[in-house]
Amino acid sequence: FKVGRKNEAVVSTQSTGVQWYTMWEEPHLEQGSEKPACDENKIQLFNMRFCPFAERTALTLLAKKIPFDNVNINQKKKPEWFLESGGKVPVVVHKGKYIPESLIASDYLDEVFPEPKLNPSDPLQKALDRVVIEKQSAIMRHLYPIFSKIPNQIVTMEEKLQHFENLVAQLETFEEELKNRGTPYLGGQSPVMADYMIWPYFERIEGLPILMGDVGDKFVLPAHLEHLHAWIKAMRSTDAVKAYGFSPKRMATILKIHYETYGYDNALKESSGM
Asked: How many beta carbons lie within 10 A of that of residue 116, not counting itself?
């Protein structure tokens, strides 16, 4: 397959289908680093390899088969030049302009590069999909306290279990949505923007049983969420998720190392191959 510059994602099609060349594991740039050159006519993505919101935009780029330059950013030691873009990942850089925020950037990419279209052409359906995205984004309110280290706050195991119970209750609404649509993806037979915007949360949810160790069995998604489990399996089969996503074991390992050491590249290196 075709190989681009060392941090460039390139798509090539062979008889076996689409294959990806990626360098997601490039070191995260820190304070004092030089700003990478940018071709104004090409997409550049300011990324953090295991940020769920940055993953949204990376998945959009991959699903739409848009070549782009990937630049990983250390969010604890941000380069001075990165602050000009707003200081939060993801940021899409195009034609000398910064487009921040995962959903805004992904919508922009879907309009500028119209094929394959990820957002529905019907305004009503697009609005209904956006409601699903916003509703399921509330997952992070319950998920984050389970796996993260919150400054000046200790989250007890009892509290983590309560957060997981609340998370499952939130997912009941997603289960019902998938049941009512009656298709493998929110978009029907193939994933759409809503699927990709929601997916990153579930890589982290699937990592919880491993991350939580001896009590991991208390953080397993209930079997009765049948449509949700089928959707997770379908999403893991997509080219974009296979190219960029994390296995549950790797996700758990990254979260553990990152929140113990606030490390970035060491978390990636020690979890490589999982």
From this structure: 11
* 171 vs 191: CA distance, rounded Å: 19
pLDDT in tens, 172-185: 999 999 999 999 99
Q: Are 70 and 9 in contact (CB under 8 A)?
A: yes
> Tokens 């959903």 label which residue?
103
Residue 51 known to be catalytic = yes
Q: Are 38 and 69 in contact (CB under 8 A)?
A: yes
* Active-site residue, from 51, 192, 210, 211: 51
Cis before 116? omega within 30: yes
**pLDDT tens, 182-198?**
999 999 999 999 999 99
Residue for token pair 């487009």: 99
